[in-house]
Amino acid sequence: MSAIKQKPLKKSLVSLHHYSKIFLVLIVLVLAGLVTNFYTEFTIDGLSKYAVKHLVVFAITLVSAILWRAKVIGASTLFLIIIYSNILSSTIYLPFRAQDPNLNFEGYFSRVEMIFFVMGLLLAVFERPWHQFVVIGYNTLFIIACTLLIPNIELGKFILAFIIISSVGAISYFVFSKVIVLQNNLQLQNEQIKEQNNELQELTKFRKEIMQIIAHDLRTPMHQISAMVDLILDEKNDLDRMSCIQMLKTTVGKTTGMLEGLLDWSMQSDDSVKSYMHLNIFDVVEDLKSQFHSKLQDKQLNIQNVISQDLKIYYSKQVIETALRNLLTNAIKFSPSDTKILVDTIKDDSSIQFRVINKANQIDTSKFKLINEGKTVESSNGTANEKGSGKGLSIVNKILEKNKGKLQIFAQDNEVIATIYLDTDALEKLQNSTVREMILSKMSA
Predict the structure, then answer these.
(1) Quick one: pLDDT band at residue 246, thresholds 50, 70, 90?
(2) Residue ranges per domain, the chain?
(3) What is the pLDDT of residue 1?
(4) What is the rounded CA–CA span in Å between residue 198 and residue 292?
């Protein structure tokens, strides 16, 4: 299965990072507006408290923008500073505004409520929708302060403003929250579709490779088998019949090995490899020994199985059999006659390792790195001129990776050590999840 890195889920309706240039223009406009407000207040009443207010907000916004461009703070932090500084600056001078005899308080109150309305929507769209409740809460305090400081204004106007801002804020919160959830669900669905498309492409590629191997690797031996059968059936070649039968046996053996490799490779897209169970690995190796009996006799080899008979793991039988069979096939292929092949296990806190160790007269270590990376290598002839496709260990690596394991091969002295690593924590989690699924299925039944 191909893996796609999941993107972070959206937390806002629109991301500021996608519109950094537009955001920069907005910052310039905000700064220009603050300068204009400061100049207007300054021309009316000099360096009054109102002019100073605009100057302070301008300084805060400018410094924050510089920090943003220097990548000290993010766009989200800058946006929050601008929004909340504008809200605070519009309300913090309420006591002074209330005492100003030249002020049209109703007009001032309407402007502040419009600021709450606009800023709340901006926070809901570009930040988290829950900021609406912060704005509603602060606006409630502002309205209460207005009713206390300006008692001569009709209370209904304050109540109406509260209802409008609070209703719009609550509605936008729920609407935008639902939209964000829908966006995230759509994002997850798109990623799943991409992953399925990648899997389909891999499967198509895999099937093409299977057909190429069948066409390339099986055509020649099948023609040889057909020709040998014709020779055996020819009554004029009695003297050569036994040699033809021996050649036929060898060719059939090679062809059988190729077919086994193709079947193993086909398991990469087969869910049966994920059929896990409790396995006694000693018994698995003993079964494989019996399958290799004739090959072991021909080359005078002996497989020494020193795995504990009490060792059991929860794993896929097909995967572990395929892996061990391929490793034993290679060990038999490259072992000199009259030597031993050792199969043992090592267990530590993080993994359980199954090793196949064989003697080898000539070791091409340059191929080990490619094999360990799951790549296909060019096949080499064995000590008895055995041939192969060169794809077996690549197959093993891939099916192990899909099933919480990996394959590593290296040389030490005159030995080749092929090790299957299984992550013990992953196996334990796998077993626990399977048990949970069984319990849930029984409960639902």
Answers:
(1) confident
(2) 271-445
(3) 40
(4) 38
Residue closest to 261 by CA, chosen among 212, 325, 332, 215: 325
Going by C-alpha positions, the residue among 375, 373, 364 that lies closest to residue 411 is 364
Record the tokens describing residue 360, joined without a space.
């080898």
Residue 309 corresponds to which tokens in the numbers above?
């008979």
Beta bridge pairs of residue 344: 355
Contact 414, 280 (CB under 8 A): no
Instruction: Please tell me the distance from the alpha carbon of residue 242 to that of residue 379, in angstroms, as a whole number.
Output: 30
Query: What fold is seen in the domain 271-445?
Result: Heat Shock Protein 90 (3.30.565)
Residue 89 backbone dihedrals phi, psi, to 5 degrees: -65, -25
Kindly compute the dihedral angle of the four CA atoms of residues 360, 213, 250, 233, in this order, to the nearest 10 degrees: -170
Q: What is the pLDDT of residues 349-391, one digit of tens each?
A: 888 999 999 988 777 777 888 888 877 777 777 777 776 666 6
277, 317 contact by CB (below 8 A): yes
C-alpha dihedral, 295 to 299 to 300 to 303, nearest 10°: -50
Instruction: Report in angstroms the alpha-carbon separations of 329 from 81, 197, 229, 316.
Output: 68, 35, 27, 20
Question: With contact defined as beta carbons under 8 Å apart, do 420 and 323 qualify?
Answer: yes
Instruction: Please tell me the distance from the alpha carbon of residue 343 to that of residue 303, in angstroms, as a whole number.
Output: 7
Query: In this predicted model, what pLDDT tens digit does every residue of 164-211 receive, in sequence order?
Result: 888 888 888 888 888 878 878 888 888 888 888 887 887 677 666 656
Residues in the chain: 445
Helix (H) or strand (E) holding 39: helix 20-45
User: What does each C-alpha distance from 330 to 40, 304, 327, 339, 412 come to in angstroms?
Assistant: 88, 15, 5, 14, 16
- Using CA atoms, how far residue 270 sits from 261, 273, 278, 395, 404, in Å, is 15, 6, 20, 13, 16
E strand or H helix that includes residue 277:
strand 276-280
Q: Label residue 268 exposed, middle or buried (CB < 10 Å: 0-12, 13-18, 19+).
A: middle
Residues paired with 410 in a beta bridge:
417
Mean pLDDT for all residues in the chain? 78
List, in order, residues 6 or more apart from 347 with CB less than 8 Å away. 353, 424
d(CA 90, CA 213): 76
For the packed helices 241-266 and 317-334, what is the interaxial angle rounded to 10 degrees? 140
